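Worked problem 6 (solution included).
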Amino acid sequence: MEMSAISQLTPIRTPSVNKPTPAEVSQEFSSFLSDAMNKVNQAQVESSNLADKFAAGEITDLHQVTVAGQKASVMLQMTMQVRNKMIESYQEIMRMSI
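Solution. The predicted structure is:
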């Protein structure tokens, strides 16, 4: 009787997970970095435009210009730190012996 109960059980199947290929991961990472760099550039351009408008007297809100400048600065600093960590990681991998 126990054998018939066991034979009625269906095996548990784990859902197959579609693992991305290395090329797909590389493309996604490249796209992510490109988007991030575009955002940093956009912040730099916006900051520059606001500073030019402030200098020309078109806008009088100094706080807006200062915040845009600081935002662009922080974004650029963070980008540089990420770049430095990536280079450091690459160099560490190159030093590894196989």
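Discussion: The chain has one domain: 22-96.
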